[in-house]
Structure formats: structure tokens, C-alpha cells
Amino acid sequence: MPESSRWLVIGGGVMGLQVATDLIDRGQQVTIAEAAPTMGGLTSAWQLGDVTWDRFYHVTLTSDTVLRDLLRRLDLESQMQWVETKTGFYSGGRLHSMSNTAEFLKFPPLNWIEKLRLGGTIFYASKIRNWRRLEKLTVEQWLRRWSGNGVFEKIWHPLLQAKLGEAYKQTSAAFIWAHTARMYKARRSGMKTEMFGYVPGGYANILTRWVDWLRQHGATTMASSPVHKVVTHTEGGLRVEFGDGRSEVYDNVISTIASPQIAQQVPELDESEKQRHRGIRYLGVVCASMLMQRPISPYYVTNITDTWVPLTAVIEMSTIVDSQSQLGGKHLVYLPKYLPDDHDGLNESDEDYREKCLSTLEKMYDHFSRDQVLDFKIARTKYVAALSTVDYSTRLPRIVTNVPGFYALNSAHIVKGNLNVNETISLGTEKFTQEVWPDYLSRMEASAGQTLHQYLK
Ligand SMILES: Cc1cc2nc3c(=O)[nH]c(=O)nc-3n(C[C@H](O)[C@H](O)[C@H](O)COP(=O)(O)OP(=O)(O)OC[C@H]3O[C@@H](n4cnc5c(N)ncnc54)[C@H](O)[C@@H]3O)c2cc1C
């Protein structure tokens, strides 16, 4: 084990916390700088009425083994609650259950041949291992080929539009493959039931335990500490400038924030690297959390194929999270709209988005009334997930950069999965072990060699 160095991890989302955990496991001195007032990034929680729950909806799959190992380490895995869920579709002005094979076979918008082709496409996608081949095709080319034009127009096109807007045209087939493979894993077998899990107390509970663990093992956490700039320090190491004008020197820095922000943060990065960071397009989201007296839907996710609906989906969180023990007897619904990072809709006012959501729900659900809404809050973020465009993996920026000691390791490096916590922390550990740590060790070795050489001279 080399001597302990001072590391700064920029970003206190799950990627930052995972990298900090890996550094602590290797005996390093770690500080985490997070711009927001609390750690957790996209997984952080907020208060809705008298309920504290995630700002964005989160579920865990039984197949999320790396996340479950982490929860075991934090003594939380045994508390997990696993629930069978149902999926709905809003299509042709009606709600349909699509939770098992029998319901799929009854799904009215599609004829028999179309159902066969849709089922076949999903099954085939779940069996594909060589995802790189899929990166060469647009998602539209691939889906039209396997599902046919009818299924594409009736199902895939509206779903892709709802999730990606016009950006679906540049998105590769790897996107649908990763998504399908994850959802397929959630089902015990074939088109049978889905099992989703959560930790009581939600991510707020996980984050408290995780951050406590890090602090107990020597990490320093700095919230409300946005990093503005990272530059090489004349006397060695990297000088980090914070938003409040402070600056500090670290031996190494790992930035886990979104790629366009990394390009801005590190002026000494090669121009070609900056271009790669800037070239990554992201999907953002506007997501309302609505606390209700009564549930509105029996489905965890209601996918929407009717194009007049301005939402990506309706998520009834209380089909999974126990209302009595976790939500004070109330019900929690999320209303997300995903949009490309340059879309004006990400800046829509809270009042307009709220009105849009409520009037849409009034049309979709006969029993819904605004009087049942106890609290309504809107979260938005420009950088959720890097868009997996055609040939995406060939255009990724490097993790080990031209600036010695500065590493750029973020979720944009997920190339064979969709964005979720399990994938993010698995990638964090994998890339840390394969790229960051070996580079650090070879730099240490080189500098030890130089010192010895000078000593012997
Ligand atoms: C609507 C929605 C639904 C989701 N559903 C699920 C789900 O069901 N299951 C699941 O497993 N995953 C889900 N996810 C994905 C999951 O939240 C992400 O995979 C994960 O949180 C990504 O973590 P990250 O650390 O890479 O990024 P982030 O959480 O974005 O962390 C980056 C951090 O960097 C900070 N930062 C930015 N700039 C600076 C700066 N200059 N200085 C210091 N700090 C800075 C940010 O404030 C942020 O905290 C969902 C996400 C969303 C948005």
C-alpha cells in the first residue's frame, strides 16, 4: 500500500460517495466537495408535507447486486422491502394493465402479429450480448426492423418521444437494449411479475448511513462547496478554487460531475478532451412530487403512448413504498418529463408545470381531483443521463487526463446499461480499480524513482 495521499472527490452523488469509499478502502485521505447543501445528488431527499422522501423516484431490482452488497456493508440490506409491481399503459384514452402475459395478449392497440413482434423484440433484446453492434444503428432503425412499422408507430415512437423528445433520432439501439435488459431482469421469469425493492426511509436513510460510515473512516465532507476551478499547483499537486473564493491544494482530484461542467472546470485539459466532454449530450428532467390523500393508480409505472399527454409517465410510488409506515398514511406520485439538456421545457415555471400536470391528470383519471393534493413540489435537473447516441462509446473522454493527478470519472462512462444507482457505483468501482488507481500507483512509483535518483546523485 503506498503512502496516504490527499484526494478531493468533486460531487457528492452516489458516484462521488462510491469513489470516496474505494479510496478509503485503500487507506487514502479523502475530502468530498458537494455544491448542494446535502450529499446525494439525484438520490437526495426533500420534505413533502410531513413526509421525507427522494426528490426523484428510486427503486432497486433484485439483480442490483453491487448496490445490495453496499447496503449489506451499511447494515441495511436485511431491511429491504420487496414488492411485486404492476405496469400500466395509457393508450387510446384508456388505462390498460400490462403486468403479465395474459394482459399483454389482451392489449387492444395491437393485433396478434404486432403483439408477437413486440414480444419477440423484447425477448431478443434481453438475449443480446454484443451491445457494440447495436451502437452502430439508431434505435428507430433497429426497432422498425424487429418490431415492424405498425408496432413502432403505435408503441415505440410515442414512448421514445416521451422519454427522449426529438433526441430519439440520434439515439442508438443500445439505449433500448439496456433498458429492456434491466426491466427483463426485474421480472422473475419471462413476462411474469416484477419485484422492486426499497430501504425503509428511502435514500435519505441510505445516504445518512453511508456518509456517517465515510466520516467514521476519516473522510471529510464539505456540502455547499461548489468547485469552480482545478489548476496545477506550482509546488506540486492541484489547486482547487471553491465558489466562496477559498482555495486548497490536493495531491489528486477525481471529478464525478457532468461532462460539460468538467470541461469548464479544468482549463488545462487538452482541447480535444474538452471537446469530447462538451460533445456529450444529456437528458434532463422536470419531475413533480405529489403527496395525495388517495392513490391515483394501481400501477407503479404507467407508460403513456397518447401524444397529447405532456408527461413521460405516471409513477405511483405508494404501490411499492408502504403508505402507513413510510408516508404517514398518504400516497406519493411522481410526474416526470424527460427532455434533452438544451430544451426550453427544462426552464418552464413551476406554476405552468403544475397546471399542466393537474389538468392532464383530470383528463386521464375520472376519480382524480385537485382537492386530494396535499403537497406538490417540482424538482428539475439538466444533467441526468448521457444520451447514448450512435457510436457513443468511441467518443468518450478519457478518465486519466493529461493533467497529472486529475481524473474525470462520471456516469457518462456507462456504455452498456441505463442510468441507475447499481450501474453507477459498479462503473465507479470498476473504472477506479482499472484506470485511476493504476495511474496513481505508476505516478507514485515514478516520483519515488526520481527522489531516489536525486538522492543518489
Ligand atoms: C427521475 C429519476 C429517476 C431515477 N430512478 C432510478 C431508479 O429507480 N433506480 C435507480 O437505481 N436509479 C434511478 N435513477 C438514477 C440515479 O439517481 C443515478 O444513477 C445516480 O444518482 C447518479 O449519481 P451520480 O453521482 O453519477 O450523479 P449526481 O447524483 O448528479 O451527482 C453529481 C453531484 O455533483 C454535484 N456537483 C455538480 N457540480 C459541482 C461542482 N462544481 N462542485 C461540487 N459538486 C458539484 C451535484 O450537486 C451532484 O450532487 C433515477 C434518476 C432520476 C433523475
UniProtKB/TrEMBL annotation:
Gene Ontology MF terms in the entry: oxidoreductase activity
InterPro entries associated with the record: Amino_oxidase, FAD/NAD-bd_sf, Zeta_carotene_desat/Oxidored
Residues of the Amine oxidase domain: 16-407
Xref: NCBIfam families: PRK07233.1
Name used for this protein in its record: Amine oxidase domain-containing protein
Native species: Neorhodopirellula pilleata
